[in-house]
Amino acid sequence: MTNLVIFYYLKKYFFIFINFAPQFKIMNEKRTEVASLGEFGLIRQLTNQIELRQPSTIKGIGDDAAIISLADNKCMVVSTDMLTEGIHFDLMYVPLKHLGYKSVVVNVSDIYAMNAIPTQITVSIAISNRFSVEALEELYAGINAACKEYNVDLVGGDTTSSLKGLVISITAIGEVQKEKITYRNTAKIGDLICCTGDLGAAYLGLQILEREKQLYLSDPNTKPDLENQQYLIGRQLKPEARKDFIEMFEKNKLIPTSMIDISDGLASELHHICSQSGVGAIVEESGVPIHPDAELMAIKFNLDPITCALNGGEDYELLFTIDPSDTEKIKYLPDVYIMGEIVAASEGIQLHTKGGNIHKILAQGWVHF
Amino acid sequence: MTNLVIFYYLKKYFFIFINFAPQFKIMNEKRTEVASLGEFGLIRQLTNQIELRQPSTIKGIGDDAAIISLADNKCMVVSTDMLTEGIHFDLMYVPLKHLGYKSVVVNVSDIYAMNAIPTQITVSIAISNRFSVEALEELYAGINAACKEYNVDLVGGDTTSSLKGLVISITAIGEVQKEKITYRNTAKIGDLICCTGDLGAAYLGLQILEREKQLYLSDPNTKPDLENQQYLIGRQLKPEARKDFIEMFEKNKLIPTSMIDISDGLASELHHICSQSGVGAIVEESGVPIHPDAELMAIKFNLDPITCALNGGEDYELLFTIDPSDTEKIKYLPDVYIMGEIVAASEGIQLHTKGGNIHKILAQGWVHF
Prior knowledge:
Two copies of one chain form a homodimer. The first copy, chain A, is of the alpha+beta class. Chain A has two domains: 55-180, CATH 3.30.1330.10; 192-360, Phosphoribosyl-aminoimidazole Synthetase, Chain A, domain 2, CATH 3.90.650.10. Chain A is 36% helix and 23% strand. Chain A is built from twelve helices and 13 strands. In chain A, the strands form two sheets. Chain A has a seven-stranded mixed β-sheet, sandwiched between helices. In chain A, helix 4 runs parallel beside helix 5 and helix 6 crosses helix 7. Chain A is globular. Chains A and B meet through helix 1, helix 3, strand 3, strand 4 and helix 5 of A and helix 1, helix 3, strand 3, strand 4 and helix 5 of B.
């Protein structure tokens, strides 16, 4: 250790000693609230200093996953997600097994969104002492079930304690041929906007569970009213990632011009694709797939079904764009919907309603902060 | 979606509805405390059901990092660590910049322990609303400084909120030629036990900071007594991973027969190597490197210096074994110490004290739970 380093330490110590107090108090002199930037603004603020030094790093922050080049034109894909109790899940109604399953799904979904195949995951958890070994076994039973379903290996992790609540952090690794990678920033004017499955159901499932929770809390003897809500609650508690579409793209030799998974809602994801690709979009309301159960439940909750589809989130469907010449390749695929077209950036991001009106689509997404 | 799946959902719903209450309460009928298993027992319990399906997975859970095979005899190395406020760090005296730096060091150290070179990291954080943007910028300044020092790229992550405190989860990725990987389970009888740097100083640095914190809390006008403690506090607040040794091994064409990084203390790491390799070990107390400052401070705290070295932890030095025929290759390296020998498992893990006594070394390590 050189003198220089010791001097550095020394300075740092003085810094600490003068302010022998929590760092976040020191910062109060100039304090910008995280909420004022929002999640994406905060990420930009924190990562704008980042330099990339490794020649193997093809894509860093800014897409569903990072891309690292390997030999033979292959690439490795890496994505990570953190779920915290009270923010992302409520153990009042989320069974731990489902939570484990969903935690893996959320991550492999990001790998699929790059048109890649997930291969391995690591799982780190922090737990408070209210969790028993049996409770954690439930959580891992769900994680293992998802590993089996998506054919990924759980290869590592960390297990530690927290002062409060459960935190789950999963990193997923996948692989893809370089020429097949689907980024967010490569949509082009004239491309068709497509999406898999249907949207808004997971959000409505959450509304049902929240309603039942409130009823239960006000009267624990109340009988939950969940009949005929299997589809909506299933979409919330046990979502699936669209592995089948990555396989179908491969089989039909289709490479989308851009792709993203729908975790924060159609509106937010569309904004990511458009702003990163430097384009605009027109979405036809009639082209946005909404399940009949979601439509009915939205009305029951006094919500607009299209708003649930645009801003609901947690659908884990794929939003992608294709060159119009590839239309034939998806036309006969089940469960895929063409909902609009990529246009010039100057046109913005618009919704053409069934009634013939034009609305601007705002990027609402989920607000954690 | 098939009927079968809907039936599965239905069953699951009944399970939830009957028990519309937090899952951990349900589990109370049979409740095993996590503390009764300890961290390593818990990991075994949770991971014993894991099946590996991917042919590329060479090593899953059980070493410093997982190993995934790539083309050209290369391997990818993956490791992950989670740090939680109040458990791993105390923001009362840990500056956020140092915390960011250390979080990266902890992870790249695991990559080096496989004799690999770290290349990329992902960083996920969960924060409560007491953290300002400026505070997070400090944290990321430390993360970026470590990325520069260790030549790794920050390629991804997640930023979310927590109900309480700060959680940092980092995953590090590295690469290594297959034949150079150093596992924990490959030490053999007759090998020499070596370690880099010195041990116990980080633990004593922590004791000093804890003492000063208590004094500060009882009287905020007290002036901290930290003069001449730069070395010990520096080892705690700004540890470095032994990148230099991986480079020296390469230069001297030395491949240790086994290796692990010292995060939980020499005793715990030695137990990992011995139990996984099916061997025992004899350590000479006189061979365990302890910095003079650590020796003095241990005595001041009424602690045995060798106990601090054995059980202190957070040194982030490398513990490795070499074939005796390689002795010449490390003999003239700076900052490396031969402290003992691998023996038959039947001999256990022993410490030969300076006074000529023989003690059993117990695997104390850090107890989170």
